Amino acid sequence: MENGLAEFIKHALQDRDAIRSELVAGLMLPQAVTSPKYLYDALGSKLFEAICELPEYYPTRTEAEIFRTHGAEIASVAGLGSTLIDLGAGNCAKAASLFSLLRPQQYVPIDISAEFLHDAVTSLQQQFFHIDMLALGMDFSSALQLPATVRRHNRLFFYPGSSIGNFNPDEALAFIKRLRGACDIEGGLLIGVDLVKDSATLDAAYDDALGVTASFNLNLLLHLNRLLGADFNLRQWRHRGFFNAEASRVEMHLEATDDTVVRWHGGQRRFVQGERLHTENSYKYTVPGFTELLGQAGFGQVRVWRDPRQWFMVCHARAV
Questions:
Q1: What domain range includes position 96?
Q2: Would 47 be classed as within a structural domain?
Q3: Any idea what the CATH number is for the domain that residue 85 is in?
Q4: How many CA atoms lie within 13 A of 71 on its CB side?
Q5: What is the largest CA-CA distance in the chain?
Q6: Which of 14, 83, 112, 158 is the most exposed place for a label (fewest CB within 10 A)?
Q7: SS (H, E, C) the chain
Q8: Is 82 a domain residue?
């Protein structure tokens, strides 16, 4: 960093052919599916910001309440002067709210929406010019390759918002193991985790009355049209979001309202009325279940903070 400017590195997220192959493979499965990472183009990231302001969407404000109430204790457990690696940083607001408590020596925000991240960090650096910032536009969901300029000592991975729920349990374990592998023995993980609760609350959180979550989900089709050269017609699809209690996860789908054929360069898929494209899962955990997962991944000394309703938890775990 020079003259208070953040360094920005945009990794090749995937080559175009690899992205197309991944998307086409998912669309051609008997149950069509796409990765939730494709929800987050520039517009999708802004729509998710709006979701976080909705009265039904409790995770953001509940997590923020936990940090307000227990922030000093969390900082004393996590330690000061870390290399704060912010996974899925978005607008960086959650991490920035903790700067005064954690006093990081280096801040490394990472997000798949590279342009959105660039704008956020440029603004943030003007407020916190004394913090070394290295922004990485990259997809960290399947691999985590940090440049040598990211300090190895005292790394604190920050993964708020219960984004860990987008992984199924086996994927979540593999992901947290990768974080453990990127930590030295003094490193740690500070993570927000959504907890199992009543279906009505969960259903409303992922299918709000204003329809912002529906717009967020439908915007995926616009992103697919750009990536694949496809011809999804948004007027032929509707949002579905609901809690699957048996699987302990909220599911988001896009449901065809009519029989339709979607075409892209080199292929097509027919969807009958009522058929769904599965766009996201958000798994909900219990405290013992997630603590066990952390232990399997090589983290220990777990500390947990919850809100009064026991809806959400923030936990810190140390690399052991």
A1: 53-140+149-198+284-319
A2: no
A3: 3.40.50.150
A4: 16
A5: 58
A6: 14
A7: CECCECEEEECCCCCHHHHHHHHHHHHCCCCCECCHHHHCCHHHHHHHHHHCCCCCCHHHHHHHHHHHHHHHHHHHHHCCCCEEEEECCCCCHHHHCCHHHHCCCEEEEEECCHHHHHHHHHHHHHHCCCCEEEEEECCCCCCCCCCCCCCCCCEEEEECCCHHHHCCHHHHHHHHHHHHHCCCCCCEEEEEEEECCCHHHHHHHCCCCCCHHHHHHHHHHHHHHHHHCCCCCHHHEEEEEEEECCCCEEEEEEEECCCEEEEECCEEEEECCCCEEEEEEEECECHHHHHHHHHHHCEEEEEEEECCCCCEEEEEEEEC
A8: yes
Give Cβ neighbours of residue 21 (< 8 Å, ≥ 6 apart): none
Q: Report yes or no on 181 lying in a domain.
A: yes
With contact defined as beta carbons under 8 Å apart, do 239 and 252 qualify?
yes
**Residue 122 token pair:** 């440029």
Residue at 117: amino acid letter: L
Query: What digits encode the pLDDT tens for the residues 70-115?
Result: 999 999 999 999 999 999 998 999 999 999 999 999 999 999 888 8
User: Residue length, the chain?
Assistant: 320
Question: How confident is the model over 146-204, as pLDDT tens digits?
Answer: 999 999 889 999 999 999 999 999 999 999 999 999 998 789 999 999 999 999 999 99
Asked whether residue 251 is assigned to any structural domain, the reply reads no
Confidence (pTM): 0.91
